Amino acid sequence: MVTIKDIINSPLLLALVIGGLAYITLFAVVYLLKARKRALELGITKQEIADVIKSSLIFSIVPSLSIVIGLVALAASLGTIWAWWRLSVIGSLSFESQIASSLAAALQYSSTTEMVANASGREFGIIMILMSVGMLSGFLILIPMGKKLMTSVDNSKQGNGWSQVLSGCFMLTLLAVYVPILLISDTIQALVMITGLIVAIVLGIVAKKPGWGWMNNFIMAGSMILGMVSSLLWTAIF
Prior knowledge:
By secondary structure, this protein is mainly α. Helices cover 84% and strands 0% of the residues.
């Protein structure tokens, strides 16, 4: 019988992931060249373009640290290859972790670690389908409604501020979905979340001080790193 370990460590899955990432990289490079060509046509100098690219690279490195941390955390339950694919393209650590945890509970495993050790390849196939289809649902909604939504948001910026209300409701919805799960499901998990929240608040306060604006780039990565480190302390205590 094909097991979950046979799939997450298979050369075929690795080849497919590398192929997908190569395609995405090529896509990005092609549009970078197109954008550069158009910028030159508009009279923007090569030096200005180079400065924009350099600054973008610098400010992309720090936020990507949180993704690397997420990769390490997700690899424990889904394997390095699949976690690499999910977090490199369109995935979210919270979304992927929730799907894996929910399916582990549905299959009557005590944890995702136990599921990885004992699940069949069929069960992992269900995980892959749920993660892929669930994340694509947002794009399927945007095909018929995306233009209208963007137009409404742009118009609201010039009028009654509806875009701020919409953004706030969206964030509150995310909090309402994820926070109760994190707080109720496990004590250690709840303490780690609270620790990360406190760190994020402290870093946010520091970032508002004169000359500390650069700290904004480290808030997500810092809260995740210190939150994960705190899990060692909470595990030892509880």
